[in-house]
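Margin note: ligand = copper (II) ion.
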Amino acid sequence: MHTTGSLVLNVLRSSRLRWIVVGLLAAVVLAPASSAHASASSTHLAAAPVLAVALQDADVDADQADAAPIVKRYGPFEPASSYGHRFDWLFNFITILISVSFLLVLILLFIPVVRDRAKPNKKAHFDHGSSLADKRFTTIVSVTVFIVLDALVLYFAMIDLREGYWNIPRGEDELAEAYQVEVLGQQWAWNFRATGADGEFGTADDIVTINHLTVPQNRPVVLNLASKDVIHSLYIPDMRFKRDANPGAVNEAWFEPIKSGDFAILCAELCGYAHYQMESTLTVLPADLFDEWEADASIMATAGYDEDDTEAQWAWDFRN
Amino acid sequence: MTAAQTIPDIASTAPRESARDRTNARLGMVVFIMSWAMGVAVLVVSFLVLRDRQPAWPPEGVKLPSLPVALVATGLLVASSFTLHRAVDRLRRGFRQVNGLWAATLILGLVFSGLQYWLWMDLWTAGHQPWAAGMFESAFYGLTWFHAAHVISGLLALVVGQIGLATGRYGTHKTSTVANIATFWHFVDVVWIILFVCFFVL
Amino acid sequence: MSHDGIHPEPTSFWRKHVFSVDHKVIGKQFMWFGFAWLAIGGMMAMMIRWQLAYPGTPFPVLGDFFFPGGVVSPEQYNTLFTMHGTIMIFLGLTPLLIGAFGNFCIPLMIGARDMIFPLLNCLSFWTLMIGGAVAFYSLTVPLGGSEAGWTGYPTLSTTVGTQGSGETLWAIAVFIIGVSSIMGGINYITTIVRLRAPGMTWTRLPLTVWGLFFTSILNVLFLPVIGSAMILLVLDRVFGTTFYVPATMAEGGAGDPILYQHLFWIFGHPEVYILILPAWGYISDFLSFFSRKPAFGYRITVGAMAAVTILSAVVYGHHMFTTGLSPMLGESFMLLTMIISVPGEILFFNWLHTIWRGSLRMTTPMLFSMGVIFVFGLGGLTGIYLATISTDIYLHDTYFVVGHFHLTMAASALFGAFAGVYFWMPKMFGTVLNEFWGKVHFWFTAVPLTIVFCTMFWSGYAGMPRRYYDHTYVEYLRDLQHLNVITTHAALLLGAAQVVFAFNFIKSRWFGQKATDNPWEVGTLEWTTASPTPYFNFQEIPVVHCGPHEFSNPNIPGGADWIFQTDVLPGEPALPATHAPAAEPAHSA
Ligand SMILES: [Cu+2]
Ligand SMILES: [Cu+2]
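Resulting structure:
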């Protein structure tokens, strides 16, 4: 046998050398994790609580100290929409439920591992689990788990859906109250169109923007989404909002911002090689500032309106 | 238990298939047809869903290929199923001579293929190509091509059956293969009838 | 003369090792095929992870071997994760879990000499080989491989979104692989229905066979669905039809891209169970074997698997909650998805009950079986977030989903496959895998794997979308990059652990300790023959007298805690009258 081959085989045969190989293996792979990114891998993972809503960490990577400091994050930011807290609450609720369930599974898994190891002269308990009592027990357990785990979550989800995501403003009055936006996804940008000061789509003062959407605070924003080419998905994490923009069909969705400021808009559906570059901005303005902005923007839009520029009138066929 | 074992009692030449062999082969074919029927169902349902979305059907400007020709083609295919069924039935009842019926099936299938080609040309020369971006063109060519692939497979299987019958490989002593070929051909027939209803009746 | 798929032993090299119709050889072929593709898909995963943790930094070790400058471009990155998914599911796990063990175990466990259609079996493998070749070839075409994700949603997957033949070849490869799986499914179903040995009643089948049986049913019914979807996609791409191209496109059209999503997930959700059902079957058996206790609630376990099989067809809508389903449809799918968790939870209950008060032998297959309980527990429970529409809307298409489905369908299936490899190795190759390195392999797989996918839960929960080339490009996600780094390091360790396995496997295969006929002391039929199995499996077709899990039965004579299924338990009738050897008809030549 070749020398290298036999050396390797000897290493495998010797029990002490085996452990050395195992140690080396662990060291090689863990080394980069523990040196350059020590703060990232070890300390904070352990500290991250399961129920973190937006646990923020003041630690700053040493090599990025001169750039804008990056504050490590382990969860989403506080919800900024009227129904956002519903997601957070239900998420945490499910987390508690499944943590308890999983803990139970682990306990039931580890008790036998510790207690019921094979020993000489000890036989396992002989039980096919096919008696009527066993079947009854299985049924009771599964019904209980279904009620506690699934039915309860289902119940809360139904309430959340009715009062949250599916409670889209409808009808003349509610829509007049709401701020309507038409969204057109394309490779790789978001086009937005709002009515402008006159409150009507398809007029010269329509506010058309790319990659930047401005909406009023504390007013429902109703979005009509479609796409020019491939499927995109409008994702605003801080609003707990996501809806696909499909080519060939218009999707309706809504959210109501309750905080002002700038928020990130991302694309959540794979849409080609620059999918990751579709980051846009959502600006939420308080009512008075928003009215000012809308008036200005409408005037600008009217001034720049060109009747022959059919490209810019993209959303007009949304309504037929 | 030892590794050295004598070769069990098996025969490399098969003089006669047992009832058990026939059931095995038939069951395999039934599972296959169930599976393939799912694929066909998906295509047909997709077509019906998409057709429902169109503002008008048949879409404006589309002239359906000749109905009489399609009717004749359907009739021939149904007739070929009958001759094939007769052939297998005779074999099962112990009559050796089925070559004629089998050949008739093959010829009917070939004539059907010719008429199918004629239907395509009828639509094609009227200016409807598959890339015309309309649902009628997409669906008609797409689904009939899919069916035509099965017709070709079926015809090849029929040729295999014909040769086997002529050389005595299949016969009254071995009917499962020819019965399975027949089942496949009936399946192809049924799919055509569904397509015919989809395009010419509904 | 009944054949039941019996054929004489071949003598030529080609018929013996390449175009063999012997189920054991085909099983091994599937196994090598699966291992090779798992390695390729795993390499792709490592490259994806490297790019995500250190975007723009050249690969370590690999350097610029695959990509100029050692850095993938966004297009190549999309190809990487598309093919990673396709390869792992269709060319890695499916051949290993269903092709390898299905072929090897079904005839042996039901007491048959081969599959019922040996030639179809051979054809199934070589069709898969062609599918694999087409998939591989698609990576080399001028405009690059498929870039539309393993789900291949139109209109990104039509010529609107991707040019070139890569995507077309991908669709063709998926179609061919589907045909191969259907062939296998037909064979498995017919074999299990028709070739069970005398006395092997449905309630005496090992749960492994039950798992494979249900998987085959799903294969046969739902692979044609994706087959048809792929036909329409290829027609759209090659012949310019417009099944998936809507009327609003500049190019014109009359179709609907959402139709594809329905078709894909009608197949796609059962596909999850196609991969997981065999693994469930294996571990249901292994947990009983290595606890030396009967599988708890055998009939309920089978019933639960059957329920999952049926329900899997009607829950697919949970993949489309953000697509634009009507609220009514959405709520129905949410309810149905919740209901499918009940049989899953019954399985957990039975597994945990099986090991309770057993006499546990902590062998490597047992460790991996318990690993399935762990990872599937984690994955299954986190599925509740995604079944619930009001939480799914936020989590959809984020790393949360990636973590979830890797734990459920990838990790569980992989652990089940590893358990199977360690367990059946003696019967397949006649040698034993080294237990020490097996345990090292288990722990160095299980721990990093948990870290990899649990970190993904965090990053997904924090809002990190999946299929992003570079998360640091997005300002909003820059403060989550540290999670990506952790995931990547754990993933590299996970990859390295598989080298241990490969080494152990190759070493044990050729230089390993010779196996005895029944090293695990288990009673199912495959252990009644020699290791490795002789060509005709059984000298005589065995006659079965008891179930597969009669462990620690007090009636077993001689102080042993197990008996073969061919043994008669004292005090039990030898064989039900209906299963007397009359099942084999009299030979009439
Ligand atoms: Cu996009
Ligand atoms: Cu699913």
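The first helix of chain C runs from residue 13 to 18.
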